[in-house]
Amino acid sequence: MTGRTSRRQLVENELLDRAAELFAERGFEGTTLADIAAAVGITRPSLYNYINSKDDLLGMLVSGLTEAGVSDLAHLQAQDLRPSERLSRAVQTLTLRICEHPARFRLLDRSEYILPEPLKQRHRTAKRAILTSFIDIITRGVEEGEFWPGDERMSALSIIGSLNWVAWWFRPDTPGADPAAVAEQFARMALRSVARPQRPDRAATSAAALAEIRADLEFLERRMGAADLL
């Protein structure tokens, strides 16, 4: 990384952080480029070296948050990992990204309705890709016997929803705030929500065995029904 590139990234990070604060305080429409420049400590003409409009900031958010999340998950998909490990790492990766800049996530969540149409489509496409990645991980886990058969899409939405809420309560400047600990705990909770219970040493009860068989049959019926639609 050159000094010039490093300087630009530092300023862009500062722009996003200060803009997130101003938008939260004054609203998107109530914040001007002059306000953002003043908050960063640069002149408005200098600001145009980095952005031309407030929409550029929204584009940087989409690129650095949702689209970056897609890239993170694609990298995990390319690795030879068991479904449980893949799910754990996926949850930890996205949680750490949220913990790093929670204000930006809150801003993007609140501003989705005002995104210009091209940005809105990029954002929604990226969100769908993240959901699809989680569904694929959970489905693979069911197929390999690690996860309990169920509604994979509902399970994925539940996990992603819990991660999104981190942005609303986690404060990185709070004494003792530990993003790694938060990420690890959310990964454990995600795994517990889908993990298939291990059989006890002694034979399972008839009721428990029947419940497992029914769950497996329902999963197979859904898969067969989906195949028939293709």
Any overview of this molecule?
There is one protein chain. This protein is mostly helical. The protein is 75% helix and 0% strand. The chain contains 11 helices and no strands. It has helices at 3-26, 33-40, 44-47, 54-64, 66-77, 83-100, 102-111, 117-143, 152-169, 179-194, 206-229. Helix 5 (66-77) runs antiparallel to helix 6 and helix 7 (102-111) crosses helix 9.
Give the helices and strands as they follow along the chain.
HHHHHHHHHHH
Number of extended strands = 0
Low-confidence stretches: none
Helix content: over 70%
Rg estimate, integer Å: 22 Å
- Please indicate the percent range of residues in DSSP E strands (runs of 2 or more): under 5%
Major beta sheet, specifics? none
Mean pLDDT: 87
Which structural class best describes the helix and strand composition?
mainly alpha
Report the principal-axis shape: elongated
Helical segment tally? Answer: 11
State the separation between the terminal residues, measured CA to CA. Answer: 48 Å
